[in-house]
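Re: beginner question about structure tokens

> Can someone show what the tokenized structure looks like for a real chain? I only ever see the sequence side.

Sure, here's an example I had lying around. Input first:
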Amino acid sequence: MKQLYRISHLLIWLVAFTSITGFAQTLSEDLQAIVDQALLDLDIKGLSTAVHLPDGTVWTGVSGLAGEGMPMTDEFSIPIGSVSKVITAACILKLMEEEQLSLDDSLGTWVESYPNIDGSITIRQLLNHTSGIYNYTEHPDFVVDVEADFSYIFESVDMLDYVEEPLFEPGTDWYYSNTNYHLLGYIVEAVTGQDFHEVAKNYFLTPLGLADVSLFPQEPFGSELAHVFQDAGPPYGKIDLMDYGIVMDSFLSSSWTAGAYTAKPADLSLLIKRIFDGTLLQESTVDQMIEELFYMGGNFDYGLGVMRYEIFGELELIGHGGDILYSTQAFYDRDNDFSIVIQANDMDVSSFDLTSTLLQIQGLVADAEFPSNTDELVSTANTFGIIVHPSFNQVRIVSDLAESEYKNHRLQLTNLQGQVLIDTHFSKQLNLPDLASGQYFLKMIEVNGSSTSQSFILLP
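And the corresponding structure tokens:
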């Protein structure tokens, strides 16, 4: 029989404050306006965006084209480039939490020696780019070889042939190197005895139901890729590169755990949120990711597989940008508990060019979640907690809600993916169906749509 337990305690009860469930129509329209304007301001062909809120609400907005004659939709996958590094770092940090490795382990502890790569470099130095290892994508022959045959499938080890002498002694400076994240992929495989993509699936993607997030070429694309455009100059203007026989095989296979994942924006927004909100990694681990930071430029710093954007201590977003013909910004607002993903299918912009749009969306959503005029949102606070009964697959509700108010409230059980499993009238006891192992959320929802929630984990 499966076991149930409430995170932290078997009995938790708290004052339930109302929250907004879903976007108001005006907010949705304002977000779409930002996306439409960004398409014009940046002069690009297509944008696809998603915002994932704490209550499971997901807003998606698209603008422009996914290909010549094909309107952009949120069902197209887009290569996420270096946002893949968040997944790679999360796998390493998960293994650290399980005490299967230490961040102070040397590279040589887990991986065979390679030319121009110092085996004494630590896992931490690989994660935060202080290893000094040469970035293989900067080698002059690399782009030539990748573009020689776009359908060619590289092996990750091929990339190490482009690694020249190190730039500095490990730990003495900072230098962004994609080579670091290939080596981290090797470490994950050495520790687990599994292929990297299987480890990522087992730890993160399968529990979240994200079957369409895939690592090419080890996995097929989860859904059709949006095409990518480039300005070919007059008289052609922006052209669909796929119409000219350009495919992503050589670009993605040469990137592997440094940048080869593809994802739909809504799926990526869920993954980014769950990695950084304490669900998939411990909050102390997330703290460690941004404990020691190295300046990248602008308002960006770099930690352990994560970029931090900060303005005068007033705004902090954590996540990553990615560029691999396409561009992606994927960040989490830790203070306000929502994630934002913006993806462009145009070679003429970089992920940094999407920062202004990212900040506009962040400001709009943060204001909507925490409005200055709360009179419209206030309702009677009620104690809401749960007691789980491992032996009977039951959850008992602890609440001071008057019986006369039961008809104005309902209970809703969802999984990590936001799928509604139970939606029923309020009662003091909820019988659970036969559920798979994992984390679940129980909401008490008022008739006006406001809600509060508790979570529990179902063990095998």
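Each token stands for a local structural state, so reading them left to right follows the chain. DSSP finds eleven helices and 23 strands in the chain.
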